[in-house]
Design brief:
Elements (H helix, E strand, L loop, with lengths): L1 E4 L4 H13 L4 E4 L10 H6 L7 E3 L5 E3 L1 H11 L11 H30 L10 H21 L13 H15 L5 H4 L1 H11 L6
Parallel strand pairs: 1-2
Antiparallel strand pairs: 1-3, 3-4
Keywords: Transferase
Family: Belongs to the GST superfamily.
Protein name: Glutathione S-transferase
Length: 203
């Protein structure tokens, strides 16, 4: 079994944190997406979306998309972490918030960074105006996340879930890549982010 990743990318970091929380170790293969190593015919024959992370099982089956990879390991590894929720209601709420954070936060952040910076202009059309609008969408979502964390240790339940991992990646990306001063503006997010930063899996 091999996990193809580019460690610095947010999606690869999300899977890495998830696996550390589960206590799972797997062989890693670095694919430098900045240099286009994911665009080779060899990699695209294995990867449905041509992106990292990608999990290759010993039988040759491959799994793309970071949440799908996390779900595979969560189901394949005996554990009581309940990172996707414990009850039927929790599972639905975790799914809901994970998707909300992805679509309104993380993915909007990706669009902002890629279109403003032009980091991948060699392989995609970058529209600076769309990047600026995407950054505004990120900024408009942050108050909602701040409200959700009012008086709560985690986003959904009383324990860590994948929604927290996704949101942690999002907030860090917004701070560093988009230069949005999240932690100085939103005290609930800052408190939650600091607590997660002290967990071994997040370091």
């Amino acid at each position: 079994m091999k996990l193809y990743e580019f460690a610095p990318t947010p999606s690869s970091r999300r899977v890495s944190i998830f696996l550390k929380e589960l206590g799972v170790d797997v062989e890693r293969v670095q694919v430098n997406v900045r240099e286009g190593e994911n665009l080779t015919d060899e990699f695209k024959q294995k990867s449905v979306n041509g992106k990292v992370p990608m999990l290759e099982l010993d039988c040759g089956v491959t799994i793309c998309e970071s949440v799908a990879i996390c779900r595979y390991f969560h189901e394949a590894t005996p554990n009581r972490k309940n990172l996707f929720g414990e009850t039927h209601l929790e599972t639905a709420q975790v799914e809901m918030w994970n998707r909300v954070v992805e679509f309104q936060g993380l993915f909007a952040g990706f669009q902002a960074f890629r279109n403003i910076s032009g980091v991948y202009k060699d392989r995609e059309t970058c529209v600076e105006e769309w990047g600026i609008e995407s950054k505004r969408r990120v900024e408009s979502f942050l108050p909602q996340l701040e409200q959700q964390l009012t008086g709560k240790p985690y986003i959904v339940t009383e324990a860590l879930t994948i929604a927290d991992i996704t949101a942690f990646i999002f907030v860090g990306f917004a701070e560093k890549a988009l230069q949005i001063e999240v932690l100085s503006q939103y005290p609930n997010i800052a408190r939650w982010f600091k607590d997660l930063s002290q967990r071994p899996a997040f370091q």
